[in-house]
Design goal:
CATH class of the largest domain: Mainly Beta
Largest sheet: 6 strands, antiparallel, barrel
Protein name: Biotin/lipoyl attachment domain-containing protein
Keywords: Membrane, Transmembrane, Transmembrane helix
Shape: elongated
Membrane topology: Single-pass membrane protein
Number of strands: 16
Family: Belongs to the membrane fusion protein (MFP) (TC 8.A.1) family.
CATH topology of the largest domain: Elongation Factor Tu (Ef-tu), domain 3
Radius of gyration: 25 Å
Distance between the termini: 47 Å
Pfam family, one: Biotin_lipoyl
CATH superfamily of the largest domain: Efflux pump adaptor protein, beta barrel domain
Helix content: 10-25%
Structural class: mainly beta
């Protein structure tokens, strides 16, 4: 390598490192960021009214259903046939009762969610909660749609942390604090986008 080239490489390297550090610093100043987040939705579970066998399965995961619509048919041991209906308008998110399966009374058969009520729950470290409040806007990215950003807004802040033990006893018999996480609920603006409760998300809340 020519002697004159070495200082240039060093300078370019320093500029690159400085730029990365500067971007990271500015990003942290502008946003509260967490990768500990997921899509959630109010879920209505449908359970087996009595013990019996699922003899007709007229629904699939992802299917839109209406309140009162027949979803499953259950036949009891005495031959009586019962119908299982949708508890609300929405989409079938989970189906645990294939045709032919025997179920006990109260067994969860399927879950219905309302797509218009999808939200994101972001867990924020307690050290950042002074920078989070209801009404803030956010940028949300979902693992299922890499490279796509969705807008959102903080609508609720949890009243309890995720851990009930503020300290643990370490191997050295001294107490060390654990970082506590506060659940923060956000809306997500994702029209015409398929979402699934539980899918992972990254949330950046604007300060």
């Amino acid at each position: 390598m020519p002697r004159w080239l070495f200082p240039l490489v060093v300078i370019l390297g320093l500029i690159s490192v400085g730029g990365t550090f500067g971007w990271y610093t500015v990003n942290n100043m502008r946003y509260v960021t967490t990768t500990y987040a997921s899509v959630t939705a109010p879920t209505r579970w449908v359970t087996a009214p009595e013990a019996g066998q699922i003899t007709a399965d007229d629904v699939t995961v992802g299917q839109s259903v209406s309140t009162g619509e027949t979803l499953l048919t259950e036949t009891l041991a005495n031959g009586t046939t019962l119908t299982v209906t949708a508890p609300a308008n929405g989409v079938v998110a989970t189906l645990n009762a294939p045709q032919g399966q025997w179920v006990a009374s109260g067994t969860p058969l399927l879950a219905v969610v309302n797509p218009s009520q999808y939200q994101v729950t972001a867990n924020i470290p307690e050290t950042q909660m002074a920078n989070v409040w209801v009404g803030q806007t956010a940028v949300i990215r979902l693992s299922a749609y890499p490279g796509t950003s969705f807008s959102g807004q903080v609508v609720r802040i949890g009243t309890e942390t995720l851990s009930v033990n503020p300290a643990v006893l370490s191997a050295s018999t001294t107490f060390s604090k654990q970082v506590q996480w506060v659940p923060v609920t956000l809306t997500i603006n994702a029209p015409n986008t398929a979402l699934w409760p539980g899918e992972n998300a990254t949330v950046k809340i604007r300060r």
